[in-house]
Amino acid sequence: MGEHFDLAPLDGVTFGATVTGVELRSITDDAFDQLYQAWLEHGLLIFPEQFLTKDEQNAFARRFGDLEFEAMPITNIKKNGDIESDQRGELVKSIRGNEGWHHDSTYMPVQAKGAVFTAEIVPTEGAATGWADMAAAYDQLDDETTNELAELEAYHSLYYSMGRVDLLPKENAEGGYDNYGYHDKDVSLRPMVKVHPETGRPNLLVGRHAHNIIGMDPEESTALIDRLNDDACQPPRIHHHQWSVGDAVVWDNRRLMHRATPFDVSQPRRMWHTRIAGEHQTEAALNHR
After folding, report:
1. How far is CA 269 from its chain centroid?
2. What CATH code is carried by the domain that includes residue 200?
3. Burial, 134: exposed, middle or buried (Cβ in 10 Å; 0-12, 13-18, 19+)?
4. Which of 91, 220, 256, 276 would bridge 216 by S-S if both were Cys, CB 3.0 to 4.6 A apart?
5. Tally of structural domains, the chain
6. Model confidence pLDDT, tens digit, residues 188-210
7. Whole-model pTM?
């Protein structure tokens, strides 16, 4: 493999690029340095036909930083191989919850830096993943709105977002939840406008986990967050990728929101998600520093 790769920006959107001519499992340091700069510029990089193993996926993700967690399946396939096709099943609840626009781990003490996502088994149709450019969304706000948001802070909670769409998992014997993200620490508080620590660009920080803006009554807070989400996630600031087996992507979770889209859950689907940890000094919640 040479030191150069081919990069084609996505048509008609404010972010994203498709990258070919590189094998992620054996990328050189020099090529990765170029790739990292492209990632900062474009926010989302799509790599067709990589067919990474879980170990190769984790090793590539570690080039971007420490891991929040190693490759884990996003799937409707049970451990015994059966397909969970029940819309109220625990595996499907998690998939359906992800259909709301969100940044990863804003509900945790430290927001994720990014993620590597790969496709192992895909249904015959549907199940695209969407991304939304929250830096471009901030850029299109009027001065009155940017001034209002500059001082606002909102809480972020997976319990809130899943409860709002009636998709909370089953409680354990102690009345809590064992699933990742339902932790017992203080609910994370975050600014509604975040400056990217590497590019210096401001972007909106909202999504489905955001709620209860400090200083607003709940209805006013919900209305503002919903409006910001709806206005932000519109063309030309969104892109949906239709997966093929072997595809890999890496995105900048500090800039982009993302979401799942529906598919026929009677068909098997298995994706692998490796989450890149955020740096505490720049991604910690205001109340977890």
Report:
1. 18
2. 3.60.130.10
3. buried
4. 220
5. 1
6. 999 999 999 999 999 999 999 99
7. 0.96
